[in-house]
Every structure is written in C-alpha cells, then in structure tokens.
Amino acid sequence: MSRAAQEMTPVDWRGDPGSARGDLEAEFGALGVIVMPGDAESPILTPPVRGALHQWLFEMNSEAELKAVGLKPRSRALLSGPPGCGKTTLAHHICARLGVPMVVIQSSEMIGKYLGESGRNIGKIFRSARRNSYDVALFFDEFDALAKKREDLGTQGADNERSNITIALLQEFDRYEGLLFAATNVTKDIDPAIWRRFQLQIEIGLPGIAERFAICRLYLAPYDVADQTVTALADAFAGASPALIREGCESIKRALVLGPRMSLPTDLRSIVQRFAASASASEGMPEPALWADQRNTLATLADCPWPPELAS
Q1: For 216-236, what is the mean pLDDT?
Q2: Tens digits of per-residue pLDDT, 22-75?
C-alpha cells in the first residue's frame, strides 16, 4: 500500500465505542448526532484537496515542533462545495485519522423560536464540547443558515436575534480550542468576521475523471467490472456529485440482484436508463452527461463488457 493510501485510511477507535457513543449522546442530546471514528469512510479527493488534507494532518501531528516556534496546529476549517460533494465525509475522515468522535450539528436546528434561545443553544454545544471527557470535534452543517452576514439584516426583532447569533458564534469560536468544522454550499452568505475565524477554507469541487473512476470502482464492488465499463460509467457521470455517482452504482448492483426476480432486463443500458428515469442532479447543479446526452451515453454503455462477475 502506498504512503498516500495509508494516510487516507481511518485509524481504529481505541476505546469502547459503544460506551463512548452513549456518553456523548447523553451529553449532547438533541443538539447533535454523534459519529464515531470507526464509522468513517475514506473520501476520494481531487489532488489539490488531498494535498491540503495531508499537509493539515501532518501539521496536527507536529504540535511540539510548531510550539517551539510559537505556533499551534490549525483547528478550524470551513468546507465548501456543491451538495453531495463529500464535505461531511471529509470532516469525518479527518476526525477518524485523529481518533476523535464528531458531533454533527444541523445549523438550522440551533435557531430557536424565542429571543436568546439560539445563543443559549450555541453556548450549550460549546460548553459540552469543552468539558467533555472525550476529545470531540464539532461539525456545523449548512453553516450559512446560522452565520448570515450582518449587513444583510434589517432592524426587526428576528434580525436582531440573527445578529446576536453571530456575536455568540464569534465569542465561542474565540474560546474554543478543539477541532471545529463548518460546511456550506453558499460561502458568500457567511459573515466576514466569522469567515476570518476559520484558519482553513477548503473548497471541494466536483470529481474529475480519475476520481469518478475511483468512486465507480469503489461502489460497484464486490462486482468485478471491466475497466472499459467503469470508464464508460465515469464518463456518463461527468458533472455529477460523488453522492449521485454512488446512488447510480448502488442502483446498478440492486438491479443485478433484483432484476432477474422481477423479470426486468439486466443489460447495462437498460439498468442505467431505468436509473436515469428515477434520479437527477440536485437543483442548481450541472446536468451530468447521462441526462444531458442520454442517447449517446447509453449507446456507449451498450458496447461495454457486461455482465460482471462477483469478485472471488
């Protein structure tokens, strides 16, 4: 296994994951969902993002050397990119590499109905993280819902509450020394003062051909699919998010298992055509080749080696 492959493999959780999960769920309650290091998946990343990730992981494992020159490892990252591009997977993977559980917080659920409730929710999350006996990472999903620019706000009571949310976040960020992630699809909506609190801003774009090939290969397993066929599928998903590619590959496997029992055709062209009729890219995303040029895409797939065998 290459050094890069080794570095991208999640470490084992060294405690009792069942006990730790129960303790953390009791601590964070309804404000966050606990994901443990052993549950992580290895992301398939473009070379620039992979390089940035390796450098950051190396940095976080070099605390003593950085301290000698008056520095600390960076601990806050804003992850941006289209829906389904793997922001949560990436954050979870980093936590797994460091051996810490992650608390996934839906930012919209932090916003309360009553004056001051949102700030109290934010304070509770950070207090729980600081006093917890386990080292935990915080992950704020859909962060733009929580950290809206203050100049976009008016003078109504709800707008004042939004401004108070931003102030509460700034105060907590400045006090918190643990690992913290936030994810957003809309970076332009985030308050600049909060933006500056993130030491890293990592944009995760749509996968290129090499990444799409690797994603298809991963999620078509345990079927031993010919390289020509995997390449054609990767081309069919040009412009698709990793989540949509995974959905397509799992649909293919599902059709191979269930198609004969349902008297449905199981040639690749028919399987992919049925998938295309039942799925699509998220609103605002590019239209992948499978939908934009379906006729030619399906014709290419019809010429690929098929069906595959289960890998021995």
Answers
A1: 98
A2: 888 888 877 889 999 998 998 999 999 999 999 999 999 999 999 999 999 999
Q: What's 282's DSSP letter?
A: P
Instruction: Please list, in sequence order, all residues whose beta carbon lies within 8 angstroms of the beta carbon of residue 132, skipping any fewer than 6 positions away.
Output: 24, 27
The kind and range of the H/E element at 57 are helix 47-60
User: CA-CA distance, 85 to 126, in Å (whole number)?
Assistant: 27
Cα dihedral angle (109, 113, 115, 120), rounded to 10 degrees? -30
Sheet holding 200-203, edge to edge: 33-35, 102-106, 137-141, 180-184, 76-80, 200-203
| Residue 13 confidence class, pLDDT cut points 50, 70, 90 | very low
Closest CA to 57 of 85, 13, 101, 95: 95
CA–CA gap between residue 165 and residue 149 (Å, rounded)? 11
Tell me the residue length of the chain: 312
CA distance linking residue 88 with residue 30, whole number of Å: 19
What span, in angstroms and rounded, lies between the C-alpha atoms of 192 and 148? 9
CA distances to 106, 186, 275 from 83, rounded to whole Å, are: 15, 10, 20
* Token pair belonging to 251: 């649909």
- The answer to whether 304 and 229 have CB atoms below 8 angstroms apart is yes
2's CB contacts (< 8 A; 6+ apart) are none
